[in-house]
Design a protein that fits this description.
It is a single chain. With about 140 residues, this protein is α+β, with helices and mostly antiparallel strands. The chain has a single domain (about 5-120), classed as Nuclear Transport Factor 2, Chain: A, CATH 3.10.450. Helix content is about 25%, strand content about 40%. The protein has a 6-stranded mixed β-sheet with strand order 2-1-6-5-4-3. Strand 3 (about 60-75) and strand 4 (about 75-90) form a beta hairpin. It is globular. The N and C termini lie far apart (about 30 Å).
Length: about 140
């Protein structure tokens, strides 16, 4: 099972991105997961998150995500901080490096897989700014 731990879930995500496997990317998110993008946009739901990644994968990024710290809360909840970087191929042909930090909440599912419930890829973003002061959750 590729998502047997929070760290393995991150590794599976990176592998899916490298293959352009959007179905695999979608499987790591809960059905009503939320992602705060590095532009500060809140994306809700597996299908919307998969669509967001379709644009990302279409630009052929080389992505690295390195889990920095995992805090388990009981047996089925984890807080995961990671550093990330990617090199994006822009339409102009230029390579654009980007990096930052993310903060994710993962939940263990009934089948034993870990899935992302919330991910803030804007957390500690290296190009300045920060996440919004209030994130609407409904």
């Amino acid at each position: 099972m590729p998502q047997h731990s929070p760290e393995a879930c991150v590794q599976y995500y990176v592998e899916c991105l490298a293959r352009g496997d959007l179905e695999g990317v979608g499987r790591i998110f809960e059905a009503e997961a939320r992602v705060m993008t590095d532009e500060g946009l809140l994306v809700t739901g597996r299908e919307a998150i998969r669509a967001l990644h379709a644009v990302f994968v279409g630009r052929h990024p080389k992505v690295e995500v390195k889990p920095q710290r995992v805090i388990l809360v009981g047996d089925d909840l984890a807080l995961l901080s990671s550093s990330w970087s990617f090199r994006d191929l822009l339409p102009s042909g230029e390579i654009a490096p980007n990096s930052g930090a993310s903060l994710s909440v993962l939940r263990k599912q009934e089948d034993g897989r870990w899935c992302v419930a919330y991910c803030d890829v804007h957390h500690g973003h290296s190009s300045g700014g920060g996440p919004p002061e209030h994130i609407p959750l409904d």
